Amino acid sequence: MPETDEIKTHMNEQANLLVKELEENPGAAMEVDPELADHMGAFEETAISAEEAEDASFDPFDPEDAEMEA
How far is CA 17 from the centre of its chain? Predict the structure, then answer.
């Protein structure tokens, strides 16, 4: 879902408040809404790329080669 400018502004304000709180209370445990955490870049994309998926789907076994060898 693309963020509108208004949503981005609100998320940035929330992120700045959280950072300020953490600076004032180092080591404090803070609960963060998943959407805000995502906006702040807390989640690393770990899915494989389309190229990696294509490479992983390659089957080196070719039935025609097997028939020739038999």
Answer: 23
